[in-house]
Structures are given as structure tokens and as C-alpha cells.
Amino acid sequence: MHRPGGTSSRRIYLLYACFVLFAGAVGYRVFSFQVMQGPALAQRAEEFRYREDLVPAHRGDILDARGRVLATDVPADRISAIIQEVEDPRKTAQLLAPLIGRSEDDIFAALTQPDKEWVVLQRRLSSEASQRIRELNLPGIVLAPEPRRVYPMGSFAAQVIGFVNWEYAGAYGIEAAYDDVVGGVPGQLIGERDAAGNVIALGQSVWNPPRDGATLVLTIDSAVQRIAEQALREAVEEQEAAGGTIIVQDPKTGAILAMASLPSFDPNHFEDVEDPGPFGNPAVSAGYEPGSTFKIITMALGLDAGVVTPGTTVDGGAYRELPDGTRIYNALHQEFGIETMTEVLAHSSNVGAMFVADRLGAEAFYEGVRRFGFGEPTGVDLPAESGGIVHAPDSPLWSLTTFYTNAFGQGVTVTPIQLVNAVSAIANGGTLMRPYVVQEIRDDEKTTVTHPEPVRRVVRPETAKQLTDMLVQVMETEYRGKFDIPGYRVAAKTGTAEIPSPAGGYETGDGSTIASVVGFGPVEDPQFTVLVKIDRPKKSPWGERAAGPAFRKVFQELFLLYGIPPSQPAELDGGS
Fold first, then answer.
1. Exposed (0-12), middle (13-18) or buried (19+): which is 328, by Cβ within 10 Å?
2. What is the value of pTM for the model shown?
3. Could you list the residue ranges that cross the membrane (predicted)?
4. For 517-561, what is each residue's pLDDT tens digit?
């Protein structure tokens, strides 16, 4: 039997139940927002009202030893967009594309990101581009000042200087090594903002101004650096080589006057470099087997220990046979007969170098090699320095063959900075110095000067003098007319090193050597130690031919630049 009003009652109860559920849900949400999430939401609101902005500090300049600017800041702008305020993304993209160096489609995509409120469109705009953008007066487009790092001399000393990346942090070279000094400390602006994100003029705010970075003065002399870079470029081009390095050092202080390497890059356009290989500095990080230039070290150790003298003789056969039957030969299997230690250097005799190492013994030899700084970083103030590789008798990779080949610079890995620094110790009378490239740090409060730092004595002064005289004789006999410097007495030694093959053994064929010359002068009062290293020369594998002309050119121009008079004027008319 149907009861009038029954259906209506059920509907009322259902509606009441729905109302209760809805009211409960609303109440829960209110409770959740006000009680459970209240502190978090309040914090978010506070963060929106009081937003912190970092204000970049002005990076300090980098100057060469003559005061020339190698790196500095110039005014620039960053262009950004408040996406929801951009009225016409397509038109905005069309107008901005030719001004900021991005494609129209790329800009349009950036302006139409659904999950973004704010987007940076480009960094470090030129003043001309910024002015044209201001004239457009585009809604939602914001220009904010930020410094731009520039390198007025382009690729000049690029691997020494390094560059500043998009985050305005130093990358590579001095910019990285001294980033906390030259980079300064960013400022801080905490301001109360309105709904559009603008600072409220009468609101509460905190302003901590940035502290600008210090100015760095390098030991690099731009005139010497130019000499080195030009000589290196000519040698690499003439030899069709893969690259190379030239270092010029003051042997008395350890200061680096020039450090050039190829291939190189322009730090103003680092973002255009596809292969980042040239960013690194091979002068401090690229290990190689030095070949016969290392005979300077072997001979220094033998003379200092008293196991040989310049007049000590050895029967310089074409090879030496080891107890296991291994034969180690002179280059081109040459046989020199009876030769003095001076002639061992002149002939670049491998057998002669092995003779010296034999008289020293393995323990004294490797102790001396490490005393000269090989096998560990020199401590030069540049990033990513390698320590090289020296396998001593306590290494599982050492063998008697290793011992003898190390004596003439194969099987041992050095860096250019290690070798030039070790030879500088011979030039200055026997003291190993700490190499450095920053000579002054100037900030608003004080100027900090780098003082030369002796590391340790490596040989006696008498030994250094003996070896210097021997190397001068090598220049005046073996290298006369090849790359000697007429009128000046310079001590030097060449090297032609084989390149290890990944498959084992050494590479063969054209471009499979590293050719080098290292030396110092004038010997009466050494002012410069110079290393010229040419990687994979194709025209000639030999140090004297591939690297010798550049070595000669560098010294000739150094003597002219510094006004150093010749010690043997009569040689100027004869000579070579």
C-alpha cells in the first residue's frame, strides 16, 4: 500500500546527508588550511612577499705584468619574461629574435610554457640590443643589469686566463683558480613585494651590497707572451703539427713570463667551442715522455753524486744488452765509440745515459728524480695540474728495462711545467723554485705580493756550473749553425720522444714523436728558461729541426726586448 509523502521523506534525508558530507568536507578543508597547513602556507606567503635576490659582484680585472687588461667586466643586461604578462607571445618572439640571437620558435616555446611563471630568455646582451628592446616596450619583458666578462685580447693567453661561464663563475685557468678572490661576494636584496613582484618602496627591505673582487696582476708579460705565441704558431704550421707548448720562466724566481699552447680558443666565445679540449692547459696538465731532454736530469744527478765527471768516458756502443736479452739502442742505432759525458749530451747517447744511471743505482736515481720535482705537482697556481708518472722500484710496473729507459726520458711521464722548472734549478745554481703566475692581488684594503718560494736544493752550485758548461759546449758544437743564438751563450738540450701506443709499445710513422728543446741563457746571468715542445710534427721528428727554430726565435727576441747585450760580439759577423 503506497504511503503518501514516503518518497519525499527519503529525498529529504538524502539531501540532508549530502549536505552533511559537503559541510564536513568544507570544514575539513578549512581545518586543513588553517590548522594543519597553516604554518606552511603562511611561510609561502611570507616568501612571496619577502623575496631574496642575489646581486652579482663586480669581478676584478686581470692584468699582465705591464698593466695591460687581459680580462674585465663591462655593463650588460639579462632579458627575462613574466609569462602571464606577455600579451602576444608570437609577436613578442618575432620582435625579439633578431635582437637576442635566438630563433623565433625557440623564444615562442619559452614564452608559452604552462608550468613556468618566469623565464630567462638571454644573458649578457650588448648595450645596443638592450636599448632597442627598451624602445619596443613589450609587456611582460624585463631587462635587468648583469655584468659581462670580456677578454680584450681575444685568444691571447686563453688557457692561462680561462673564462667565466654562464653562472658567472670562473672556469679553467686563473679565472677558476682565483675565483673566490677575483669573483668577489654577491650582494643580497630582501624586499617586500606586491602581487606583481615589485619591491614596495615603503616596505621593509634589507640591502647587503656586493663586495667586488680583487684585481690580479700576472707574471705573464704580454710582450713575451706574444713572442711565444707567434713562434709556436709558426712552428706548428711549418711542421704541420698537432699542437705544442712554449713556456718562458724566470729561473731565479720561478715566475712564468709566458705560457702558450695550441690549439687554443677565444674566451669571449667559449660557448661556440664544440670540443672543450682546448679549454684545459696542457702546459700544466698534459703528461708526455720527454725523451732526451731528460738526460739533463740524469747527468745532473750523476755529477752531483760524484759518480761521473764531464771527462768520464764510456764505450758508447750502439746498444746495451740486459740480462734478459733485451737490447736498448741509441737513436737510429748509432755507434759513437769512446765518448766523454759532455759528448754523451752532444750525441744524445742513450747508452751513455744508461751508463750514468747504472753508476748511480736505482735508489739514488729515483730519489734524485723526485727531488727535482717529478712525480708530483709543482704547486703552480693554475688548476688541474698533473703530477706526471714515475715508476720507482717499489712500483709493480717497474723493471730493469724501465730503469734504463727512464735514464733517457722514455717510460717516465712529465708535464711541460715540471721540466722547465727542473731545468731552471740548473740555471739558478741548484735550487728548485715554486712556479707561479699571479704576482699581485689588489683589493680595496691592501695589495698582496707573491714572493719567490724556494722548494729545496736539488744539486750543489758546483754541479749546476759544471752541467751548464757542458750544455753550452753542446750548443756551440752539435747545434752550431742549427739553432744557436749568435753572440750569446745559451745552454740547451734537444729531445725526440716516441709516443706510447694504446695497443702497447710506441707509435710509428709520420707524426709519431714529440720534438722539444729546453735551455736557459744567457749563461753568464740566466734570465730565461725556455721550453719549446712540438706535438706530432710531420716534416721532421727531431727536436733540433722541429722545435729548434722556435727556440732560437724566442731567445733572439727576448734578448732584444730586454736589451741584453751579446757576450760574444765577434760571433755576430761569423756565426750562423
1. middle
2. 0.85
3. 12-31
4. 999 999 999 999 999 999 999 999 999 999 999 999 999 999 999
